[in-house]
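Late entry, flavin-adenine dinucleotide complex.
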Amino acid sequence: MKPIAFTYHRPTSLDEALDLLAQWGPEARLLAGGQSLGPMLNLRVARPAHVIDVNDLTEFAYVREAGDAVDVGGLTRHYQLAGSPALLRHCPLLPQAARTIGHYAIRQRGTLGGSLANADPAAQLVLVAVTLDARLTLARRDGRREVTAKDFFQAAMTTALQPQEMLLSVRFPKLNVGEVCAYRMFNRRHGDYALVAVATTLAVQDGLVQRLRLAISGTAPLPERLDAVTAAFEGRPVTSAWPTEVADAVVNAVQPDDDERVPATYRRELAHTLTVRALTRALEKLEGVSV
Ligand SMILES: Cc1cc2nc3c(=O)[nH]c(=O)nc-3n(C[C@H](O)[C@H](O)[C@H](O)COP(=O)(O)OP(=O)(O)OC[C@H]3O[C@@H](n4cnc5c(N)ncnc54)[C@H](O)[C@@H]3O)c2cc1C
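Prediction complete; structure with ligand written out below:
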């Protein structure tokens, strides 16, 4: 199928893009990498009267250190996330997850802003934003506002973005010195979205868990950060049985939907296996093992 007819706009400045959104908001869609919007237009799932192509706003493709955080522009492509030295050093969860998205061509075009605005519950970058509780800056003609990832993602494919707003940048906290992270996912076919994925960060001091963050996708309508589970392990010793103990608690906490294609028991098993793998990988990193 082909898209319905729409008016194509190609602003060359942010002001121009925001003016167009202010004018056409509810009838318009921003076009970034086009890797989700393109298929939605072709299938006529999206039927905007106006498409605002923001690909000339190249100043919003960047990765910048900002004190104890890293700021990433909304138009930064997945391959740029995967290869950014600042992210690899301070926020490696983002490159680790970005390099597993789809296929080469999708990573060359798809953007951080597009992925988060699209809010697919299985998207890698949505999971990372939830894990790290990233802060998103949204812009409209008359101002800007900051929203936490927790507040931004409201339901599957639904966010706090207003029709006149553009997602401009995302602030990810840096890992603390000595803190490590790991991301593990499972999909049935290379390039598919994950059935279940786990992202974690871990800090250990004197053999005791100092800080543990863990979020999971594929077990609820949105990725969930399991703070109640992880809090129970903080201050406790890290033993060889520890990843399995955390995984047991994760499986008790999640309630995946049951469907014919992917039964809930299968998702629970994946949640268990991937939690063990992610935590084992995090422990290897603490011990300086590079795999
Ligand atoms: C075959 C295939 C496999 C894929 N596999 C995966 C995968 O495994 N994991 C994964 O996470 N993704 C996957 N994707 C999706 C891909 O990551 C997309 O790039 C991403 O979801 C959307 O980013 P985009 O820049 O292409 O956005 P677009 O497609 O241009 O836009 C998506 C939506 O976001 C809105 N939007 C875009 N930018 C902004 C902005 N700055 N502010 C506000 N709204 C904005 C658009 O209006 C639109 O509604 C896959 C896509 C394809 C085609």
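The first strand starts at residue 7 and ends at 9. Will revisit in the morning.
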